[in-house]
Amino acid sequence: MFRAALRLSVSGARSLTRSRPQYTASVAARSYSHGKQETDEEFDARWVTYFNKPDIDAWELRKGMNTLIGYDLVPEPKILEAALRACRRLNDLASAIRILEAVKDKSGPHKEIYPYVLQELQPTLNELGIPTPEELGINKA
Amino acid sequence: MLATRVFRLVGNRTLSTSICLRGGHGVAKVEDYTLPAYFDRRESPLPDIKFVQQLSPEQKSLKEKEKGSWAALSKEEKIALYRISFKESFAEMDKGTGEWKSVVAGIFFFIGFTGLVVLWQRKYVYGDVPHTFDAEYKQKEVQRMLDMRINPVEGFSAKWDYENNAWKK
């Protein structure tokens, strides 16, 4: 949590490599002294596949999200899109909103990440009818 | 009744835990702390259980409506669905408590109380100061020090004007 916040500036929004070079991380979530390092694309693809499982169940969604949030990175919009669609398959709107809140919280002091993610997810949000926490007013205590 | 409770935890998975009866003594009671609990945590956004376990009829019908298109839900219904699953939003769980104000107030209070205790002690506990603190004694002491030329170069006596019998201006 605090460790993640401190290191966020180094390996921060990992997969925003194309538009923001200063956040590029060359290491994946696990660091081996030898053996192949997983690339950012492989990491993203793995997680997208995880959430795209057609018969994903509620436990797997929760486990996946909690694990993903535990990593020292803000997930790519495509992973989040797959997670939101998984929420739709599970008929769980509350979790979808919670995921958006978690992304904003994960960005920490980097305030530009959340609007970018929302911008990328806008088509999916409109399609599925998922409101943002700001629209519901729950982003204020 | 214990069987249904265990079944609800395990959900739709196969009931792998069987309830054993040993020696006719019956089944161990399931303690509350062994069941999954609800936590609002930043690092674990989706807790193990929903916040509201017993749904009212309106909430049940709302859950049915959730199976349809989410765009058809009103803003209040979406908030209601959120509140069924979660107790506090991220903003609410992260906000400060203002506890520091109580702490600072307590600190000032006890410092003040200590001050009162010190004043009381001065009046009622401590005896008189030694006679060497009397003004008359002090005057004689200063005169003696000047007569002895204490620190005549840069210190005490250096500040006394011996010609005019006064302190130097």
From TrEMBL, chain A:
Predominant localisation class: mitochondrion
Coiled-coil parts of chain: none
Any one Gene Ontology cellular component term annotated for this protein: mitochondrial inner membrane
Keyword annotations from UniProtKB, A to Z: Acetylation, Heme, Iron, Membrane, Metal-binding, Mitochondrion, Mitochondrion inner membrane, Phosphoprotein, Transit peptide, Ubl conjugation
Pfam families hit by this protein: COX5A
Gene Ontology biological process terms, A to Z: mitochondrial electron transport, cytochrome c to oxygen
InterPro entries registered for this protein in UniProt: Cyt_c_oxidase_su5A/6 (IPR003204), Cyt_c_oxidase_su5A/6_sf (IPR036545)
Subcellular localization(s) per the UniProt record: Mitochondrion inner membrane
Metabolic or biological pathway, per its Swiss-Prot or TrEMBL entry: Energy metabolism; oxidative phosphorylation
Keyword Acetylation: yes
GO molecular function: metal ion binding
Topology with respect to the bilayer: Peripheral membrane protein
Described purpose of this protein according to its UniProt entry: Component of the cytochrome c oxidase, the last enzyme in the mitochondrial electron transport chain which drives oxidative phosphorylation. The respiratory chain contains 3 multisubunit complexes succinate dehydrogenase (complex II, CII), ubiquinol-cytochrome c oxidoreductase (cytochrome b-c1 complex, complex III, CIII) and cytochrome c oxidase (complex IV, CIV), that cooperate to transfer electrons derived from NADH and succinate to molecular oxygen, creating an electrochemical gradient over the inner membrane that drives transmembrane transport and the ATP synthase.
Protein family (similarity comment): Belongs to the cytochrome c oxidase subunit 5A family.
Subunit details: Component of the cytochrome c oxidase (complex IV, CIV), a multisubunit enzyme composed of a catalytic core of 3 subunits and several supernumerary subunits. The complex exists as a monomer or a dimer and forms supercomplexes (SCs) in the inner mitochondrial membrane with ubiquinol-cytochrome c oxidoreductase (cytochrome b-c1 complex, complex III, CIII).
Designated name of the protein: Cytochrome c oxidase subunit 5A, mitochondrial
Taxonomic placement: Eukaryota, Metazoa, Chordata, Craniata, Vertebrata
Automatic annotation (TrEMBL), chain B:
CDD domains: Cyt_c_Oxidase_IV
Record-stated family: Belongs to the cytochrome c oxidase IV family.
Origin species: Cyprinus carpio carpio
Description of how the protein assembles with itself and partners: Component of the cytochrome c oxidase (complex IV, CIV), a multisubunit enzyme composed of 14 subunits. The complex is composed of a catalytic core of 3 subunits MT-CO1, MT-CO2 and MT-CO3, encoded in the mitochondrial DNA, and 11 supernumerary subunits COX4I, COX5A, COX5B, COX6A, COX6B, COX6C, COX7A, COX7B, COX7C, COX8 and NDUFA4, which are encoded in the nuclear genome.
Record membrane topology: Single-pass membrane protein
Coiled coil: none
Keyword Membrane: yes
Protein name: Cytochrome c oxidase subunit 4
Cited function: Component of the cytochrome c oxidase, the last enzyme in the mitochondrial electron transport chain which drives oxidative phosphorylation.
